[in-house]
Automatic annotation (TrEMBL):
The lineage of its organism: Bacteria, Pseudomonadati, Pseudomonadota, Gammaproteobacteria, Oceanospirillales. Its cofactor is Mg(2+). Its EC number is 2.7.7.72. Keywords: ATP-binding, Magnesium, Metal-binding, Nucleotide-binding, Nucleotidyltransferase, RNA repair, RNA-binding, Transferase, tRNA processing. Catalyzes the addition and repair of the essential 3'-terminal CCA sequence in tRNAs without using a nucleic acid template. Adds these three nucleotides in the order of C, C, and A to the tRNA nucleotide-73, using CTP and ATP as substrates and producing inorganic pyrophosphate. tRNA 3'-terminal CCA addition is required both for tRNA processing and repair. Also involved in tRNA surveillance by mediating tandem CCA addition to generate a CCACCA at the 3' terminus of unstable tRNAs. While stable tRNAs receive only 3'-terminal CCA, unstable tRNAs are marked with CCACCA and rapidly degraded. HAMAP family: CCA_bact_type2 (MF_01262). It comes from Kistimonas scapharcae. InterPro entries: CCA_bact (IPR012006), NT_sf (IPR043519), PolA_pol_head_dom (IPR002646), PolyA_RNA-bd (IPR032828), tRNA_CCA-adding_enzyme (IPR050124). This is CCA-adding enzyme.
Length: 380
């Protein structure tokens, strides 16, 4: 039995990056032998084991054969006679198909180190085309390593285009598309992810609503998403910048409806969907607010539910402010709105209750007090 460090740990060490997770391949062993040494099996479709002390994953060397459509349409074969080279051959990119021995010797049968040095993302073998998820993974790696100057090899781009035109990419389920997309949004250059998908045709097949925003003559979503990455914004904010439908210098008139459909189709989690729709509904008010009347400020505060969800409101403000900068619009609204929030917090409800206000009458009295407080704060 021989054990090798493989994949991302080898790649990132050679790039001089921190190694976060270690994956291991075991050659010359069997499930029963692994269990006898205390490894805990976790894999259902193929044998993967957890080390009894480190908790790291150890997978038996395996080969695979295409048996159906999509990323799950594979039959795996493991046995003690499967070689390390055979295991590495089934991987996606050459930079992920390297291994190290326990004494640090590099094993690189598919020239991943050379591609690493030349900043190339290249598929290992024609079998790449059998798994449509690899299109998304390659785009995500391009988004991760773009700051290092990495480019996708022309032959790999051509293969990705063939996978799209053949219809193989259409077998990806929404959950996996979203999983790769949200991971790509967290990368240093998320715009590159969508550009790669657009260039090979996968964006049209998987997320057609995003096409206008990531056409090469569209600036707003691309610029906002790039700036949010520079500011290290969270993935919820980045999703809004990527997904918000634009018409010229403002969101499309039916932006919220488009987002609802898009999020439902892609199985987008509630937190992401709610923020995108919130911005779609209220960013136009923000962008057109050339004067800060107490009424307009309070109405926006009420519609964005600041009095119950202030943390979400602050996130909304940050998103709108960055978008306002992107379209060179007035961006003093944040100061006005934060002033209005502070003013509203000074309103004491108890005296109004003691005066006998109840129900809708109490709500109306509170609102009037808040309007007066905002007006006084703006005047000062």
């Amino acid at each position: 039995m021989k054990i090798y460090l493989v994949g991302g740990a080898v790649r990132d060490r050679l790039l001089g990056l921190p190694v976060k997770d270690c994956d291991w391949v075991v050659v010359g062993s069997s499930p029963s032998a692994m269990k006898a040494q205390g490894f805990r099996p976790v894999g259902k479709d193929f044998p993967v084991f957890i080390h009894p002390k480190t908790g790291e994953e150890y997978a038996l060397a395996r080969t695979e054969r295409k048996s159906g459509h999509g990323y799950a349409g594979f039959t795996f074969h493991t046995s003690p006679d499967v070689t390390l080279e055979e295991d590495l051959l089934r991987r996606d990119l050459t930079i992920n198909a390297m291994a190290e021995t326990d004494n640090g010797e590099l094993i690189d049968p598919y020239h991943g180190h050379e591609d690493l040095q030349n900043r190339i993302l290249r598929h290992v073998s024609p079998a790449f085309r059998e798994d449509p998820l690899r299109i998304l993974r390659t785009a995500r790696f391009a988004a991760r390593y773009a700051p290092f100057g990495f480019q996708i090899a022309d032959e790999t781009t051509a293969l990705m285009k063939l996978m799209v035109s053949s219809g193989e990419v259409n077998y990806l389920v929404a959950e996996r598309v979203w999983q790769e997309t949200v991971r790509a949004l967290a990368e240093p250059a998320p715009v590159v992810f969508f550009d790669v998908l657009n260039d090979c045709g996968a964006l049209s097949a998987l997320m057609p609503m995003l096409l206008p925003g990531f056409s090469h003559d569209s600036a707003i979503p691309r610029t906002a998403l790039a700036r949010s990455a520079e500011k290290q914004s969270d993935t919820v904010s980045r999703f809004v910048f990527a997904a918000l439908p634009w018409a010229d210098q403002a969101p499309a008139t039916n932006a919220a409806d488009q987002l609802k459909t898009f999020c439902a189709d892609l199985k987008v989690p509630v937190e992401y969907r709610e923020m995108a729709i919130l911005v779609a509904n209220h960013l136009p008010t923000w962008l057109s607010m050339t004067s800060a009347s107490p009424e307009s400020l309070l109405t926006l505060l009420e519609k964005t539910d600041v009095f119950r969800r202030e943390a979400r409101f602050q996130q909304f403000l940050s998103i709108c402010e960055l978008l306002a900068h992107t379209v060179n619009a007035n961006h003093q609204q944040r100061n006005w709105l934060e002033t209005a929030v502070l003013a509203c917090k000074t309103v004491d409800i108890q005296p109004l209750v003691k005066q006998g206000h109840k129900g809708q009458a109490l709500a109306a009295a509170i609102r009037q007090e808040r309007l007066s407080a905002i007006a006084a704060a703006l005047a000062s």
